[in-house]
Amino acid sequence: MSGRNHEEGLKDLTLLGNQNTQYSFDYAPEVLEAVDNLHSNRDYFVKFNCPEFTSLCPLTHQPDFATMYISYIPDKKIVESKSLKLYLFSFRNHGDFHEDCVNIIMNDLIKLLDPRYIEVWGKFTPRGGISIDPWCNYGKPGTKYEEMAHHRLMNHDLNPEKIDNR
């Protein structure tokens, strides 16, 4: 049987397949786990859509709801998806502004993965009659991915949203 083996990063995973998973209700970047990217010889995107992201307003403590979009071009490591789910869940009682949450997520994934390129977009549901949709990105310095990041940043909103395409 072919496929990934324990020598290719599986032996280090503690969450996947664990029936006794503990859910942290406080921000927990330490829950993130990565495995080896077996296809680092090519560029490809890994995309996550997380429609049940929640955090708290740091002042009112009211809940904020979002779909979090995470896209990255891996280098040597990829994030293990169950650990990412638990990590995003850990924001449930975390009090920060929308812009902070998006940048914190990106910073934690950069620290874990050292990706070639990454972007994180939080599409928060309106509260008080206004929605806030922060978007951030990063390209590895000194590479074509840094140029890509600059280009995507300058052109990220070429098709602004309307009320009917949210």
TrEMBL record:
Subcellular location: Cytoplasm
Catalysed transformations (reactions): 7-aminomethyl-7-carbaguanine + 2 NADP(+) = 7-cyano-7-carbaguanine + 2 NADPH + 3 H(+)
Top EC class for this record: oxidoreductase
Location of the active site: 57, 64
UniProt-annotated binding residues for substrate: 79-81, 98-99
Keyword field: Cytoplasm, NADP, Oxidoreductase, Queuosine biosynthesis
Alphabetical list of InterPro entries matching this protein: GTP-CH-I_C/QueF, NADPH_dep_7-cyano-7-deazaG_red, QueF, QueF_type1
Single GO MF descriptor: preQ1 synthase activity
PANTHER family xrefs: NADPH-DEPENDENT 7-CYANO-7-DEAZAGUANINE REDUCTASE (PTHR34354:SF1)
Family label: Belongs to the GTP cyclohydrolase I family. QueF type 1 subfamily.
Function comment: Catalyzes the NADPH-dependent reduction of 7-cyano-7-deazaguanine (preQ0) to 7-aminomethyl-7-deazaguanine (preQ1).
UniProt-recorded name of the protein: NADPH-dependent 7-cyano-7-deazaguanine reductase
